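Below is a filled-in request sheet from our internal design queue. Each sheet records the structural input a requester submitted and the sequence that came back. We keep these sheets so that new team members can see what a complete request looks like end to end.

REQUESTER: design group, bay 2
PRIORITY: normal
MODE: inverse folding
CHAIN LENGTH: 237
BACKBONE (tokenized):
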């Protein structure tokens, strides 16, 4: 008796069909396109209106969480920033562990400190810094090191016509305008609540670009003068 097993062809009807072998991705994509088409049909203007609304939502999310434009309202940051300039403020610059650094141009909420508005100034001192104006040569001094501000200070301005000698509390910033003769900044609020210091938590972001007018499009770099400032005593830089 022949006991050798004979190969038996599998019943083809038991094999999965091609439609069963593939995922439902095509079906989901089809349903998504159908849903978008139904939404577009329901809107006045159809697909054009839907596209515009999508762009607006994207811009709103982008402006809220990533990069926000601000208009310069005064001459306090001349010569670098002029009245009417639009700057792009990087709202993620200080959201992942890094904090504002000396020389950064920042936008902050001045409510309770400067006034009920947003302001733009340059960071001169961070937590622990000893900021003095002026030394015997007439220069701003941070942690005992004179800062050459000639690259950004408004022509003809001195570092300050008001003397000050402050130590910046941890978690705060000492800020000044580049046009010292036309800027209300930390110097003017030393006797106010908070002593003229800006809590780091009230910083909206770092101004990284001049975006408008188009012929002034440029990146706002951190001045190298602050790179030579040593860390404050007891603070590791």
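RETURNED SEQUENCE:
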């Amino acid at each position: 008796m022949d006991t050798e097993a004979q190969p038996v062809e599998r019943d083809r009807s038991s094999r999965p069909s091609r439609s069963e072998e593939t995922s439902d991705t095509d079906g989901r994509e089809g349903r998504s396109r159908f849903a978008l088409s139904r939404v577009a049909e329901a809107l006045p203007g159809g697909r054009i209106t839907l596209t515009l609304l999508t762009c607006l939502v994207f811009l709103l999310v982008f402006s809220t969480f990533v990069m926000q434009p601000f208009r310069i309202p005064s001459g306090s940051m001349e010569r670098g920033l002029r009245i009417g300039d639009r700057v792009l403020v990087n709202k993620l610059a200080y959201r992942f562990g890094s904090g504002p650094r000396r020389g950064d141009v920042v936008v902050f909420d001045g409510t309770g400190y400067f006034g009920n508005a947003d302001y733009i100034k340059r960071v001169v001192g961070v937590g622990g810094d000893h900021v003095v104006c002026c030394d015997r040569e007439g220069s701003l001094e941070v942690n005992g090191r004179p800062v050459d501000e000639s690259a950004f200070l408004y022509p003809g301005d001195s570092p300050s016509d008001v003397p000050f000698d402050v130590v910046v509390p941890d978690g705060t910033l000492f800020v000044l305008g580049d046009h010292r003769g036309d800027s209300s900044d930390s110097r003017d609020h030393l006797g106010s609540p908070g002593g003229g210091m800006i809590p780091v938590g009230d910083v909206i972001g770092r101004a990284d670009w001049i975006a408008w007018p188009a012929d002034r499009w440029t990146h706002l770099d951190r001045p190298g003068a602050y790179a030579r400032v040593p860390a404050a005593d007891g603070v590791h830089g």
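SHEET NOTES:
- Residues 49 and 227 are 50 Å apart (CA to CA).
- Residues 1-26, 55-65 have pLDDT under 50 and may be disordered.
FILED BY: M.R.
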